[in-house]
Design brief:
The protein contains eight helices and four strands. By secondary structure, it is an alpha+beta fold. It folds into two domains: 3-85 and 198-211, 3-Layer(aba) Sandwich (Glutaredoxin); 91-196, Glutathione S-transferase Yfyf (Class Pi), Chain A, domain 2 (Up-down Bundle). It has a four-stranded mixed β-sheet with strand order 2-1-3-4, covered by helices on one side. Helix 1 (21-31) runs antiparallel to helix 6, helix 1 (21-31) crosses helix 8 (197-211) and helix 4 runs parallel beside helix 6 (162-171). The two termini are 33 Å apart.
């Protein structure tokens, strides 16, 4: 059965790997599963056809036969459980890798998204100059904790897993903030993730969509 995911027809980041479909593309490339991409406009996200797949009107979605999923964590976990390459064979290590998926999304990503919101949507607010340092410090708390866990290891828990895929994807949002530069081991960790062939293929696929001329051009 053909796997189909959705992605922005023009991503807000211009195809720099920050849109969440990149995470799913990376997982699919890692497990060696071919897939098709249905590109959607911002207007189409709010139409009934898309809302049936994603009730919050976002991307990506995942369809395979009678399986329809939304939320990147759920999609990546679904793929990791069905195909070798993203979860360890050992049951205890497998459970820990799944825990890191949730840690990336539930513990590390929220303050990073708060920072993104503060910089992009609240920059003109009169209180922004006072709030922004506080938001950055909340991100630093998580980075400090993550850095201490990682130490000088290559990956979070032994071999590369879906937990690393999700964590690197989350940390990539800090690329322009300079905060990763304060934690050299995390900066190197993200660079290792970006250098993985499956990520490079996923990144190239999303970038190609965003640099292609418009269909009517």
């Amino acid at each position: 059965m053909t796997i189909t995911i959705t992605a922005f027809e023009r991503s807000p980041d211009g195809g720099q790997g920050l849109a969440r479909d990149t995470r799913v593309r990376w997982a699919l490339e890692k497990v060696g599963q071919p897939y098709e991409v249905r590109l959607v406009s911002f207007a189409a996200l709010k139409e009934p056809a898309h809302l049936r797949l994603h009730p919050f009107g976002q991307i990506p979605t995942y369809e395979e036969g009678d399986v329809a999923l939304f939320e990147t964590g759920a999609i990546v976990l679904h793929l990791a459980k069905r195909h070798a390459g993203l979860l360890p064979a050992d049951a205890r290590a497998r459970a820990r890798a799944i825990a890191w998926i949730f840690a990336a999304l539930n513990t590390v990503e929220p303050p990073i998204l708060e920072l993104v919101t503060a910089k992009l949507l609240e920059a003109d607010a009169p209180w922004s100059a006072l709030r922004l340092p506080l938001v950055k410090d909340r991100v630093r708390v998580r980075l400090r904790q993550l850095s201490a866990h990682l130490g000088d290891a290559d990956w979070l828990d032994g071999a590369f897993s879906a937990g690393d895929l999700m964590m690197v994807s989350v940390l990539l949002r800090l690329r322009s903030s300079g905060l990763l530069d304060e934690f050299p081991n995390l900066r190197a960790y993200v660079a290792r993730g970006e250098a993985r062939p499956a990520y490079e293929r996923a990144f190239a696929a999303q970038l190609a969509v965003n640099t292609a001329p418009p269909a009517d051009g």
